[in-house]
Amino acid sequence: MYSDADAAALYDLLNPWNPDRRSDDRFFFPLVMDAGSVLDVGCGTGSMLKLARERGHRGRLVGLDPDCAALDRARLRADVEWIEGTAADARSGAGFELATMTGHAFQNLLTDDQLRASLSAMYGVLRRGGRFAFETRHPQARAWEGWTPSNPDDVVDLVDDAGRALRYWHDVDSVVGDIVTIRGTVAKPDGTVLRVLSESLRFLDVAALNALLVEAGFEIEGQYGDWDRGPITDDSREIITIACRR
Fold first, then answer.
1. Residues 108, 199: contact at Cβ < 8 Å?
2. Looking at the chain, which runs of residues are DSSP E strands?
3. What are the Methyltransferase domain coordinates in residue numbering (predicted)?
4. Of 12, 45, 207, 235, which sits with the fewest C-beta atoms within 10 Å of its C-beta?
5. Are strands 238-245 and 126-137 parallel, antiparallel or unpaired?
6. How far apart (Å, rounded) are the C-alpha atoms in residues 226 and 246?
7. Average pLDDT for 137-159
8. What pLDDT shows up at residue 117?
9. Could you tell me if 137 and 104 are in contact, meaning their C-beta atoms sit under 8 angstroms apart?
10. In 10 A of CB 47, how many CB atoms?
11. d(CA 219, CA 159)
12. Cβ–Cβ under 8 Å, residues 2 and 10
């Protein structure tokens, strides 16, 4: 069997948190280290907050995620607070300086109702002047067109923590409006399927995203099209946002 715990461990192998090597992690990590209190929404296995603690963060660090197996892995570090729940479950009045959603977790909010509830919760957990930092893939880049086993860059061969040789790839099941549904397949090198991980992602454009942020009460402090804080252009692949509670 390929368990939920195996899938959580695989996530860490596929998405190592390393601000010294990855431009997206390098963007978020200074924000975390400079904030006295941080809520990481969709924290997964907790890699960002665990590294922040390892590198000397002494404030309050809280990770929130609905995936129990990922949180079990996160809880191996006890000096960070780990909470099971979705973005909409975040407790109002907590007074965080910073809330984050990294790894394109924001795209798992599929409906306007989910987005409104989640953004309202993010606004509520922040103190006045607190910031919400997140990213979503720009729909104009049509990233999903590269998520296919025919793209060699999307096929990953690796050895997991249990010493198993594995192969991982994506397939796109559907594109309906701004919702893309994909499958991530975990297999043996000979193609024997061990686990299929399904996910749906929403690709909001800038206008729709910003309208929801303003409706929730946020001011947009900065919005970027790349991890070097360049402007959003016709070639941008990302919409990277720092929004501020008034």
1. yes
2. 37-41, 60-65, 81-84, 96-101, 126-137, 156-159, 165-176, 179-187, 193-202, 218-224, 238-245
3. 38-130
4. 207
5. antiparallel
6. 25
7. 97
8. 98
9. yes
10. 23
11. 44
12. no
Report DSSP state, residue 18.
Answer: -
Measured between its terminal Cα atoms, the distance across the chain in Å is: 49
Average pLDDT, whole number, for the chain? 97
Whole-prediction pTM: 0.96
Torsion sign (Cα): 52, 54, 55, 57:
positive
Task: Give the mean model confidence (pLDDT) for residues 86-109.
Answer: 97
Torsion of the alpha carbons at 43, 45, 104 and 235, rounded to the nearest 10: 130
Q: Which two three-digit tokens encode residue 61?
A: 């660090």
| Contact call for residues 147 and 156 (beta carbons, < 8 A) | no
Inter-helix orientation angle 206-215/112-125, to 10°: 50
**Residue 169 in tokens:** 């790839």
